[in-house]
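Lab notebook, bench 4. The sequencing result for the construct came back, and we need a structural model before the next group meeting so we can plan mutations. Quick request posted to the team channel:

Model the 3D structure of this chain.
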Amino acid sequence: MVYEYAVEPAALNNWQDFRYVYDQIGVEHGRLISRYPSKWASMVMKSCEENKHLRDVDRLRIVEKLKNQEKNKMARLNRSYDSDNDSQNTWMSNVAMQNRQRPFHAIIARSIALKIPNLINIENVDPSHPLWQVPKDNKVLRKAKELAQCSRLLLQMSKEILIIDPHFDPMERRFLKTFSHLIKYAFEEHAPKRIELHVEYDYWKEQKRATDWGKDCLQNLPLLIPEGFTLQVFRWKSRARGEGNNDKLHPRYVMTELGGIRYDYGIDEGPGTTDVTLLSVSLYEQRWHDYQKETSAFELFGEPILIQGSLRQNVGERQT
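Done. Here's the predicted structure in token form:
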């Protein structure tokens, strides 16, 4: 659902190409620029300075966008980079090696001397190019790995993660399997600062339940969470009529500080397929605020349940 693109700094050394690519990048578009290497933005600025035909006003526009919007556009993954100097040849040779080890969805470049199957000349980047076309929604098998894979890149690059499924049941393997994959992907590149699980509290369902839901979380979730990390579990109720927002807890999401993905049937395994959709910026911003304690559209039931992780694993170790 979200794909990583390596973009040669020299490919964005003019306002026309920069604006087209940059405006089509973001979680909501399903495309992210690989921050490769870590000083990628500085390399773009240097390429702009070397372009004698670039107007000062356009160069300043590029610099401003890179400084103010980079965090919402970039995929920051643990990719090694051998930097002898800052030449474009060095960048291309590193990208070619990385592409063999851990493929990018595509490489956008102005230099196309190397024979790389998923290389796109910047002049050919447009809506008709198959490597530029990415779906904003998809039909996905309701299998744990397939469901979690839709959010993998988003989870890898994020620091604040909200997993939202009102009907999540900590006693049901169909929920736990997908949840386990989501957590693994969240720790593949680095340890996030915050992970939360948001569910619905339903009084009548609780009365019919044979076991205590909160205790079931404390029993079954620690082995899915890396040791030394704390997961917070929030239980929400819809507000009573006349108390402002009367939204019901139904949609299921994986959301981070960078964007969000909606799961139609939920994150649990089951027969058939489910629709999975990238959230637009406006809807994402609304739903993100709905699940923050200070701005929530719902009423919090009790205090968050704190799950202390007990899974031993090396953070940054990629899962297969």
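Residues 137-308 form a domain with the Endonuclease; Chain A fold (CATH 3.30.870.10).
Will bring this to the meeting.
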